[in-house]
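Input sequence (171 aa), recorded before submission:
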Amino acid sequence: MNSEIEIKLRRYKHNLAIGGRGYIIFGVWTVVKLLMELSMGDLRFSYIVDETVKNGVDRLFAIIFTTISFAILFAIIMIIHLMVGKNAVRFGKSQENRKRFYIYTSIVALINIIGFATYPIGILNGKSILNLTYIASIMVDLSVISILIDLFYSALMIEKLNKQKSAEEEV
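Predicted structure, token format:
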């Protein structure tokens, strides 16, 4: 028979696995968002290349260097999201990689929170305009932060419930 603790454990483990997969999907979205920004936004690829050429760099070299730089950036973004997401899924399935999960998720959460703090600073400095795209970016970043908080909460609840389960089994 399923005890209340086992039911809650299953729920939090499932929540952790789903949250980890969601975080991987947000990584894909981040790369797509950056690609859209490079093709249609204020920081277009052609603008970056033109500015580099103005500084006396050969156009072909500027294109190659900019492309490689963005490819590396996209790879780093995906690797980070995959590491956090996969460790969350693994932790949800078993207690493996617990320390790695906490370390990676803590670092990423801190970076996201610091990044989120730039929104009001950008508006107050006049560098950012409060439009629908800006509001959508704020909402997406809030969603990512809430996913990370939920991952932490689920992991802590799993540990707490495992301790309760162990204590119950000893009695």
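Checked by second reader. The chain has a mean pLDDT of 85.
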